[in-house]
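Pilot study result, target chain (151 residues):
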Amino acid sequence: MAKSSRSKNKNLPTDTHKSNQTTVTATQQTFYHHQGPLPPAESLAQYEKVAPGSAERIIAMAEQQAVHRQIMEKKVVDSDISNSRKGLMYGLIIGLTAVFGGCACVMTGHDVSGSIIGGTGLTGLVGVFVYGSRERRKERETRLEAQIKKQ
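Predicted structure:
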């Protein structure tokens, strides 16, 4: 049957040899990534076309979110500072109480107990000071490294 249909259609080639043609298909894929509080200007323009005034509302929403984030960050920082100060004050009170308590014990004739209590309080104060100094130094170094990487 195939032969009869070929003979009827004169536009089809009558050669029966195989062709060395190769079909090439090209595909192009575009990836776009955007990160930030606002969409790209092109997207804002498209939003504005679809819903007039939407670009202004989107920008206002991003501004409100930025203000909110800054307020929350300030609260966190202020809270951290307050907690740090309270911790220092309470630590100082506890340490000085131990040192003065140890001195009082020594003065009343309890030399061993007074030395242990006062020595423990003094060691605690010095240890906290040294630990805090190391932590602040590590934090400064970490911040400096982060700033260098940004540049």
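One observation from the pilot: Residues 39 and 122 are 58 Å apart (CA to CA). A full batch analysis is planned for the follow-on phase.
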